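Q: I'm writing up a methods section and want to include an example of the input and output format. Could you take the sequence below and give the corresponding predicted structure tokens, formatted cleanly so I can copy it straight into the document?
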Amino acid sequence: MPSRSDDPVAAAIAAGVARLREAVREVAASNPVVLIDGRSGACKTTIARVLVREWPLQTAPQLVALDSIYPGWDGLAEGVETARERILRPHARGLLGTWQRFDWEAGEYAESHAVNPALGLIVEGCGALTTATARLADVRVWVDSPEPSRRHRALGRDGDAFRPHWDRWAAQERAHIARHDPVALADVVIPIP
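A: Here is the clean output for your methods example:
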């Protein structure tokens, strides 16, 4: 396995997570909310998982991936709205949040999950950073990566399950970016080669 110094993607992820750890510490709260947005294949999920492992506070955070909430291939905006209403708003008010996992194979909602407002929270996924969700977060992140690299990673990860939907999903991402300008909302921009 290549070392971080040999792998520019791994090095960029490590540098980005270091910046996020510092941003979380600067919030000076026991339950900060971190939103990680970016287009498909940008490395959002990897960054979120590494941040969970390297969380700088005493109690580990909760991680919610929007991929578990989107109601199918046309559900980017709906999934983000669900996360705002069912997870982020209750957390901001000190209330227990609940959400249901969407079973992509069955095409229906499955089990429910709770979100504890006393714990830190990381929400990652395409569309996570909007004008409405930004107000409910302490650390706002945009992960940026060139389209060829993103496509290679996403299709390498999800293969034939994603390939026929790439353009359809990308159109929703473009609409999200045009409407919300998540780069302008971000406190931290992480470039990934």
